[in-house]
Design a protein that fits this description.
With 443 residues, the chain is an alpha+beta fold. The chain has five helices and 18 strands.
């Protein structure tokens, strides 16, 4: 909404910079939008506004038109012709030609020939398309005798030059264009122009705003466009180029009866319809090989029907998924109810066991608190221990381990050694031999 408000404010504020006939460009659609066309340039007349737009042309297109501009000094008449052809061998590349004739009685004449080319590529790291293009420009500029520029004898200039432009787009639909145009040599004065253009589509309305700098002066050119009736018609409005100091509201109507495209432009001066000012233009173009309006309409309808069928199929699939989910939930509900019943049964059983355990604990605690008197111990005579003993040597046994086993003291191993020297080899008893274990002390 902020962009919309800014565009409407700029549209309602006429500029104070007045242009001459050398700043005029053709195109019924572009002039109907107040020449805010630098970020669009998506038809054949885009060669005059941003040659980068040529790369977006998908069909061969040829067109022409006439215009009449009213201004206080003298009216201006215009004629134009454009031709754009995509390169059949290279994708996203096209070349074009444009001619524009301007005649203002008593002020001057201008003929412009453009030979342009545009191409598109994708930035590797940003994955966004970039359009770029250039024009070779031939300009003939003539001032009659008695005109402000022609003096007493008149002047004629022949100039060569060029244009260059680039277009960028973003994921949110914002398009930005930068154009260097009218870079001519030999015309006796500089017509170089720098244009920074932006456009964005909000719902179905296209908003555009161009900032044009020429000769040290800057001016905003806002415009908008809205399609109607399945893009059969397009209505436009904008603030056009001020000629002779008269500001006006430019309006336009586009008729897209493909393959024919007709664009009409009319103007309303801000100071009233009786003021001599504004532009009235008609341009006609034919797009060779493009689908007709009826084919596109049927295609769009078929596309929408296909989308609806896909949506219906998707809804049916969602319904089946929901039904399966409901059945699964019902099965899970039965399983959970069965598990709940079993859990409740186990809970009751555990409660019974807990009660029995509590009774047992109380009984044990009572017996612990009230123990019975212990019986008197019966005297028992301990039988005398018999010595010597016999011991069969097992693997891994030593004299100290055997001494510890029988005497409870490993340091008495020497007694075993002295009694069994024949069965001891290198301080270790022979495995499997039978040792005589003497008593721990001599008796």
């Amino acid at each position: 909404m902020t962009k919309t408000a800014l565009l409407l404010i700029a549209l309602a504020c006429p500029a104070a910079i007045a242009a001459d006939f050398t700043a005029l460009n053709p195109g019924g659609r572009a002039n109907g939008m107040g020449t805010a066309f630098g970020s669009l340039a998506d038809d054949a007349y885009g060669i005059f506004y941003n040659p980068a737009g040529l790369s977006g042309m998908g069909y061969l297109e040829a067109g022409g038109g006439f215009a009449r501009r009213l201004s206080p000094p003298r009216p201006v008449g215009e004629a134009n012709f454009v031709y754009v052809r995509p390169n059949p061998d290279i994708e996203n590349k096209a070349a074009g030609f444009g001619y524009h004739a301007v005649r203002q009685g008593g002020q001057g004449e201008k003929d412009t020939f453009l030979f342009g080319q545009g191409q598109r590529f994708t930035l590797k790291y940003f994955q966004q398309p970039v359009w770029w293009g250039y024009n070779f420009r031939i300009t003939s500029l003539r001032y009659p005798a008695g005109s402000p520029e022609g003096g007493n004898s008149g002047k004629s200039h022949f100039g060569l030059g060029g244009d260059a432009g680039v277009l960028l787009s973003s994921n949110n639909g914002l398009r930005t264009g930068l154009v260097l145009s009218d870079l001519n040599f030999g015309l006796g004065k500089s017509l170089a122009t720098v244009t920074l253009a932006n456009s964005i589509r909000w719902k179905e309305v296209l908003f555009a705003l161009d900032l044009r700098v020429r000769g040290g002066h800057a001016e905003f050119f806002p415009g908008l466009e809205k399609p109607l009736f399945n893009d059969l018609l397009r209505v436009r409005a904008g603030k056009g180029v001020t000629l002779g100091g008269v500001d006006y509201l430019a309006t336009g109507l586009g008729i897209n009866f493909l393959p024919w495209v007709i664009d009409l432009t009319a103007s309303l001066p801000w100071k009233g319809f009786h003021v001599q000012g504004g532009v009235y233009e008609v341009s006609v173009a034919h797009r060779f090989g493009a689908p007709t309006f009826s084919e596109r309409f049927v295609g769009d309808a078929a596309g929408r029907a296909r989308e609806l069928r896909e949506q219906i199929d998707g809804l049916r699939q969602q319904r089946l998924n929901l039904e399966n989910s409901v059945m699964t939930l019902r099965v899970n509900k039965g399983v959970m109810e069965s598990e709940l019943t079993q859990s409740q049964s186990r809970l009751r059983d555990l409660e019974d066991r807990l009660k029995d355990t509590e009774v047992s604990v109380l009984d044990a605690q009572f017996r612990l608190d009230n123990p019975p008197p212990p019986p008197p111990p019966a005297p028992r005579a301990k039988p005398p221990e018999k010595w010597p003993k016999r011991h069969t040597v097992q693997p891994g046994e030593t004299l100290r381990s055997i001494s510890s086993k029988y005497y409870g003291n490993p340091n008495l191993w020497e007694r075993i050694y002295q009694a069994n020297e024949k069965n001891i080899f290198r301080g270790l008893p022979r495995e499997g031999s039978v040792l005589e274990i003497p008593p721990p002390s001599a008796k």
